[in-house]
Amino acid sequence: MSCANCSYELPEGAAYCPRCGTAADWVCAACQQPNPALFVHCRNCGEPRQETAAQTRLAPSERKFITVLFADIKGSLALIQGRDPELAASLLDSNVNLMIHAIQAFGGTVNRVMGDGVMAIFGAPRAAEHHALRACLSALRIRDEVARETAREVARDAKPAAPRVQIRVGMASGEAIVKPMVANDFVGYDAAGEIVHLANRMEQLAKPGGILMTPRTARLVARDMAVRSLGPASVKGMPRRMDVYELLRPRENGHAVSARHESPAVALVGRDRELAAIVNARDQAASGFGRVIGISGDAGCGKSRIVTETIRRDPGDWIVLEGQAAAYDQKGYRLILAMPSSLSQRRQPPRCFSARVL
Q1: Within this chain, do residues 246 and 279 fall inside the same structural domain, yes or no?
Q2: Among residues 110, 193, 261, 354, which one has the fewest Cβ atoms lying within 10 Å of its Cβ?
Q3: Average pLDDT value for the chain
Q4: What is the domain count for the chain?
Q5: Do the domain assignments include residue 57?
Q6: Cα–Cα distance list, 89 to 86, 93, 97, 143, 262 (Å)
Q7: Torsion-angle region of residue 203: left (phi > 0), alpha (psi -120 to 50) or beta?
Q8: 98: nearest Cα among 116, 77, 112
Q9: Would you place residue 170 in the very low, low, confident or very high pLDDT band (cuts 50, 70, 90)?
Q10: Is cis: bond before 180, omega within 30 of 0?
């Protein structure tokens, strides 16, 4: 059988095309008629689609460094008490949908929806740089969006004394086992490990409107986010008290701070060819030829380190303008606008500088 999208010959029992990812057609067990993936009943005999071992399977697990986020509505039972079931479901669903949209806006994967809350993972199933930062930005957006929705609800509600929606968020970063689950045409992901339980514990410790995180998450976002230490706290299941941090707000010029070049902890090894290519292009630019260099690679493979090393080894008389783009922002012009601001970080400003952006 061939893929309906790209005509690739599918392996026997494949539920998805290995080339383009399109769901494979299924064959009716009663009449052997091929049917499109979206069909629930056979178009020839009307028999319902039967789930097979090839259509439901547990894909291989992977060890990944991720950030896990839990968010829920504090006191949801008191919030919906006495309400009509449809109105209660509408209230909870609208706020949970706000959480889901905020998580997806920054590249997170929602893997559990639990009535009045969600669990999400950042950095998996697809590796993403700054996964802890993405989780923090999602948490802040969840808090702000729910607060705005609550304010609108208060303006419409004739009972000002009724309980209001208040959320709490917990986050933890570290290694976990990511387990993809494939069932028919649905692909889901789950995570297992200590950080999943820690993120849940952080959520439970948070006060209404609070966002708590573990020390490792706080270290990962310290340059971009303002956090406050709440000191050691008793965490259920942990043998010792654990430092807990509260997320406050993004730092001003946080991305510019992150983009600064720092002294590398270890020597760079094995990138001589790449460094030579950059130096060659730089020398040609100094001779009057326009040059642009693009460096691509998987998250964590050392792209920023190559640039840092090039500047560190031979800074010369170049004026280095730095800007940092965010994949979740999708506004490329901010990269250009950030570059002139990096001049203010120089100890000795250049004698003369002029530029024109076309």
Answers
A1: no
A2: 354
A3: 79
A4: 3
A5: no
A6: 5, 6, 12, 20, 51
A7: alpha
A8: 116
A9: very high
A10: no
